[in-house]
Amino acid sequence: MQKVPATEIANRIVELQALLQKRNIDAAVIRQNADLFYFTGTVQDAHLIVPASGNPVFLVRRNVARAEAESPLRPIVRMMSLAQLRETTFEACGTSEPETIGFELDVLPANAFFMYDKKIFPNQHLVDISGIIRQVRTIKSLWEIGVMRDAAAISKLVAESVPRILVPGMTELELWAELEAVSRKAGSYGMIRMRAFNLEMIFGHVLAGPNAAVASYTDSPTGGPGISPAFGQGSGNRKIMPGEVVSVDAMAISNGYANDQTRNFCIGPPPARLAAAYHFVRSVHARFKELARPGAITGKLYETVWEWAREAGWDKWFMGWSDPKISFVGHGLGIEVDEFPFIAEGQKMELQQGMVFAFEPKVIIPDEGIAGLENVYLVTNDGIESLNTATEELVII
Questions:
Q1: Each residue of 353-374: b (16+ CB within 10 Å) or e?
Q2: Do 238 and 171 meet the contact criterion of CB atoms below 8 Å apart?
Q3: Is 343 helix (H, G, I), strand (E, B) or coil?
Q4: What share of the chain is helix, strand, coil (3-state, %, to 5)?
């Protein structure tokens, strides 16, 4: 089991504390699993208390023994009751009455907020610190980048397994299951974390032919029918036939960190229009690499990519064929799939060295299918580097 190094945890806490001080917030109380993992190295039923200055306290209801084994953070204190949270937070702040306490209000359930606000901290001002937590998580360390390369290696195995598995007449669902097995055996545990409310995903979208163009009910370029309205996305029971482009848009996870990759395959020659669309999306990646570098504004990058789609005549089907169109062409990722930065409409964030994002230009043509290519890019000092090394060719089987 790979553990998060103590130096990683220490650096993250220091950066969070600097932002708390800048915003005059006395302490952060962290509750969500993804954030707990990021700042402690473990996921427990717990509260992490991070004062603006001084030592954090990891208040764990269960399991203390596992927390001590998995997290380098100290002290770890057994939480006997919620009343303990108030006392421990005040002690960590070094005052009997801190004024402002931050919570992850973007993900905290309303009932929990009311409980903290009315019963635990009735005299304190509770503020949202989700933005600064996400800011800390935006720039990836060398250790994180190494783990994300491990996830990309699993994605490469998945892509390279398609030609030996895919045969005419197998269903999308059968291909999906075989490829997920490849991923799981390579060390990906299948748990995909997304921060946005009601966004759910498993492994990814393995879709072929007309099924691939079934619109998503989420803000996602690909959807698919799934096998039940209870989770109406992803692979269905339709058989894959020769001449259909098969889109394998799959997520691999290594030690909590994600890789998002899309590769295309076809049994025999692909339809001419989808082959042309695939040539276009490959050219988009090539042109994008020339522009995406530190200092580039994400919203302007989005606008430029859309200009290319209009100039090439693909705008009718670019990033979806139904209204409303998908609002992004790229998204940050790490522990969660929807981290900063977003290559999206109206975004003003500048690319910075150490950011990692998935870039996924896709053409979706109704009744025909998808032509798409997705890589995870690391922003370097002088440009971007793809962490995904599987062939970018439309593979003919």
A1: ebbbbbbbbbbbbeebbbbbbb
A2: yes
A3: strand
A4: 35, 25, 40
State phi, psi for 317 to the nearest 5 degrees: -120, 5
Q: How far is Cα 208 from Cα 370, in angstroms, rounded to an integer?
A: 8
Residue 29 CA to residue 85 CA, distance in Å, equals: 9
Asked whether 334 and 351 are in contact (CB, 8 A), the reply is: no
Token pair 């669309």 is found at 277
Tokens of 307: 């200009």
Q: Where are the alpha helices (DSSP H) in the chain?
A: 6-22, 33-40, 64-70, 83-93, 110-115, 130-138, 142-165, 172-185, 272-291, 298-312
Q: Along the 397 residues of the chain, how does pLDDT read in single tens digits?
A: 799 999 999 999 999 999 999 999 999 999 999 999 999 999 999 999 999 999 999 999 989 999 999 999 999 999 999 999 999 999 999 977 899 999 999 999 999 999 999 999 999 999 999 999 999 999 999 999 999 999 999 999 999 999 999 999 999 999 999 999 999 999 998 889 999 998 888 889 999 999 888 888 878 888 888 888 888 888 999 999 999 999 999 999 999 999 999 999 999 999 999 999 999 999 999 999 999 999 999 999 999 999 999 999 999 999 998 788 888 999 999 999 999 999 999 999 999 999 999 999 999 999 999 999 999 999 999 999 999 999 999 999 9
From first CA to last CA, the distance across the chain in angstroms is: 37
Q: What is the full DSSP assignment across 71-111? A: ---S-EEE---THHHHHHHHHHHTSS--SEEEE-TTTS-HH
**Global confidence as pTM:** 0.96
Contacts of 258 (CB under 8 A, 6+ apart): 148, 151, 192, 193, 251, 252, 333, 334, 335, 336, 337
